[in-house]
Amino acid sequence: MRKMEALWAYQEAEIAKNAVEAEIRSTPARLQLNKLHKQLKNQQAVIAKLTEDIEIYEQQLPKLTEQVEKLEARLEVESGELVTIRQDDESTAEEMTELKVDIERLNREISQGVRETKSLLAEIEKATEEYQSTVKAASKAKKEYDTLRVTCEEEKEARAGEMAKHDQNLATLAKTVDPALLERFNQVKLHHAVPIAKIVNSKCGGCNMSLPMVMLKKIATTDGIVECENCGRILYSAND
Ligand SMILES: [Zn+2]
Question: How far apart are CA 144 and CA 152, in angstroms?
Answer without folding.
Answer: 12
